[in-house]
Specification:
The protein is mainly α. 42% of the residues lie in helices and 6% in strands. The protein has 3 helices and 2 strands, in the order ββααα. The protein has a two-stranded antiparallel sheet with strand order 1-2. The longest helix is centred in the last third of the chain and has 12 residues. The radius of gyration is 11 Å and the shape is globular.
C-alpha cells in the first residue's frame, strides 16, 4: 500500500495531510484530479511529487483518509 507516502502531522501544515517530503497537500492533488488533470499534468505543475505520489493521494481519498 502506498499510503506511507502521505504524512499527517498536527504540527505541520495545520494537520492537513500532505505528500511526504513536500509541501503539497493531498487535497490539492485530489482537486486537480477531480478537475480532469492527468497524473502527468499534476506532476508537471508540482515537480516535487511523482506519479506514485499522485496515486497515493487518490488511494488516500478512496480509503477515507486511512
Amino acid at each position: 500500500m502506498a499510503l506511507e507516502q502521505i504524512s499527517h502531522d498536527p504540527g505541520v501544515a495545520h494537520g492537513v495531510p500532505f505528500v511526504t517530503g513536500t509541501n503539497v497537500p493531498v487535497a490539492v492533488v485530489n482537486a486537480l484530479l477531480s478537475q480532469g488533470l492527468s497524473p502527468a499534468e499534476i506532476v508537471t505543475r508540482h515537480p516535487s511529487i511523482t506519479l506514485d505520489d499522485v496515486d497515493a493521494c487518490a488511494e488516500y481519498s478512496r480509503n477515507g483518509g486511512r
